[in-house]
Specification:
Number of strands: 10
Strand order of the largest sheet: 1-6-7-5
Helix content: 25-40%
Distance between the termini: 28 Å
Bound molecules: zinc ion
Number of helices: 8
Order of helices and strands: HEHEEEEEEEHHHHHHEE
Largest sheet: 4 strands, antiparallel
């Protein structure tokens, strides 16, 4: 599942391919929940528009168009955005450009991704409910968010209204680096815990971005997906528990 680093890497890869280009053709698959803006309207609103900016908000990509509209893209579980390549039955959105260069393709096998056009000045409830970006979150913001919650800190980290962009893998890795058990009630995080946690989040996310996300980092993960294997620090077997319906991996000795 694409998390913040994968989305940020996609943004960096796509920006040079997208910016300054004008859309001359929009092709989609059938209408469905993937299209928050229905295909016919999507075509009407994108045709002739030029991409001016490409930003990331949590796990969303937000492209600014020259009329002031914004194109919102979410990769869902299996979404991939790329330029060039051959479209297939899972390619739900294709944009062709005036310069006749490579097309932009949005392929998504499970179709949990999202596409929406926002009118100029239109706010998006999906973006409005996002908390501060996980790469920019301060210890004080984490402390304030956790103070009144008895939910486990793992659940707090996955709540996109608290912190935008953190998913299961990086939450587990950051909690290990911070020495915090994923089961610790959020209201029992001290200010110092929050300092360590904010630092750990930035470290795992930045590292994943610079590694190119996906493959390499996961192989080097300290806890995620390593249930029963020895902790890389103390050799205690890594434990797997389910918290808020998500699997969590942690070292019962290093994380309290
Ligand atoms: Zn350990």
């Amino acid at each position: 599942m694409p998390e913040l680093p994968e989305v940020e890497i996609t943004r960096r890869r796509l920006a040079p391919l997208l910016l300054g280009r004008r859309v001359v053709e929009v092709r989609t698959t059938r209408d469905g929940y993937f299209f928050l803006t229905p295909p016919r309207e999507l075509r009407r609103r994108l045709l002739g528009r030029r991409f001016e900016t490409l930003e990331r908000r949590g796990k969303y990509l937000v492209a600014g168009l020259n009329g002031g509209e914004r194109l919102l893209l979410h990769l869902g579980m299996t979404g991939r955005l790329f330029s060039g390549g051959v479209p297939d039955a899972h390619t739900h959105l294709r944009l062709r450009f005036e310069d006749a260069g490579p097309e932009l393709l949005f392929r998504d096998v499970r179709k949990f991704g999202k596409v929406q056009v926002l009118a100029a000045g239109e706010s998006s409830p999906r973006l409005a409910r996002l908390g501060p970006d996980a790469l920019a979150a301060s210890p004080a913001q984490l402390h304030t968010a956790g103070r009144r919650r008895r939910a486990p800190v793992k659940t707090l980290l996955l709540d996109q209204s608290v912190l935008a962009g953190v998913g299961n893998i990086y939450a587990d890795e950051a909690l290990f680096l911070a020495g915090l058990s994923p089961r610790r009630p959020a209201c029992r995080l001290s200010r110092q815990d929050c300092v360590l946690l904010a630092r750990a989040l930035k470290r795992v996310l930045r590292r994943a971005i610079s590694d190119g996300a996906g493959g390499r980092y996961r192989d080097e993960g300290r806890v995620y997906g390593r249930a029963g294997e020895p902790c890389r620090r103390c050799r205690t077997p890594i434990r797997r528990v389910v918290i808020g319906q998500r699997s969590s991996h942690y070292c019962p000795r290093c994380q309290r």
